[in-house]
Design brief:
Layout: H1 2-21, H2 28-33, E1 38-41, H3 56-65, E2 68-75, E3 81-83, H4 90-93, H5 104-107, H6 122-129, E4 135-139, H7 145-157, E5 163-167, H8 170-179, E6 185-189, H9 200-207, H10 212-215, E7 219-223, H11 231-238, E8 242-248, H12 251-260, E9 263-266
Parallel strand pairs: 1-2, 1-9, 2-4, 4-5, 5-6, 6-7, 7-8, 8-9
Antiparallel strand pairs: 2-3
Length: 271
């Protein structure tokens, strides 16, 4: 009797967790998107920064090599969508200013890592890629998430090439679930320790993928170092979701990730 009760409780919890974890409905668009399995992280940039990350040069190199592209988006003070990873310009431009506090005309004054490359508009990058390779578009959270989502959606509505969106912020993923349900969307995540700056409950929700119940992502992009023996990832895949590894930096990790993940985001080497 005790065994039956215990088994029933475990079965119920598994079914309930499967409901919470379940991905969005798989579409032909998602299957075609993941026919390309290797994505250049912030474009095919170089470790010596002669080709800076998230630059037109890096995206051109990725297209020429036939790799998919992962890139990052921010909203400027005047509502422009720019391709840039950090909140602040200090690392890439040597200027201690936040992207959100600058107009695009101000950003045009700066160059990336001492090269001639400028911070590109998302519209410029879309025109450059022109559907030749698929794009994973990461939206960086800010105080203007709704405006960011709206502006990005407008640009992607007009784009004819393959793309998907992703974010660490479940609110952004949910916005697309509710307002652009046909967009392929992904939840960025990692092990609990990766979110140390957040309160424990938030860390638990993100690392356990429990926010899936309100976002229904088609794929999960997970930090590959944290993916060993992850029951939640296996279950998500079993339920029909796709898995993307980030960010691989050597061939041995690439070999491991290609066995488990549907696509891999890489940098600093050519797989």
């Amino acid at each position: 009797m005790v065994f039956f009760i215990a088994t029933s409780i475990i079965a119920f919890l598994l079914v309930f967790y499967s409901f919470l974890l379940a991905p969005g409905r798989v579409s032909k668009k998602m299957n075609s998107l993941f026919q390309v399995t290797k994505y250049a992280h912030r474009g095919l940039h170089s470790i010596d920064k002669s080709i800076p990350e998230n630059s037109l040069a890096a995206f051109s190199a990725a297209v020429a090599a036939g790799y998919g592209i992962e890139l990052d988006l921010h909203l400027t003070a005047d509502g422009k969508i720019v391709v840039f990873h950090d909140d602040n310009l200090i690392h890439m431009c040597g200027v201690n200013k936040n992207i959100a506090d600058c107009t695009y005309s101000e950003l045009l004054k700066y160059r990336l890592c001492g090269t001639n490359e400028k911070i590109p508009l998302f519209s410029e990058v879309l025109a450059l890629i022109d559907g030749r390779v698929p794009i994973i578009v990461e939206l960086k959270a800010s105080k203007k998430n709704i405006e960011l989502c709206n502006e990005v959606a407008k640009l992607l509505d007009m784009y004819q090439g393959p793309y998907c969106i992703e974010s660490f912020h479940p609110g952004i993923v949910r916005w697309f679930y509710k307002n652009r349900p046909h967009f392929v969307r992904g939840q960025l995540s990692a092990g609990c320790k990766c979110f140390n700056s957040l309160p424990f409950f938030h860390r638990l929700l993100l690392s356990s993928l429990l926010t899936n119940v309100v976002t229904r992502p088609h794929f999960v992009a997970f930090r590959h170092e944290d993916s060993i023996r992850k029951f939640r990832l296996n279950l998500f895949k079993l339920l029909g979701g796709k898995l993307v590894a980030w960010t691989v930096r050597n061939t041995s990790d690439m070999k491991y990730c290609q066995k488990f993940f549907d696509a891999v985001i890489f940098e600093f080497f050519t797989p």
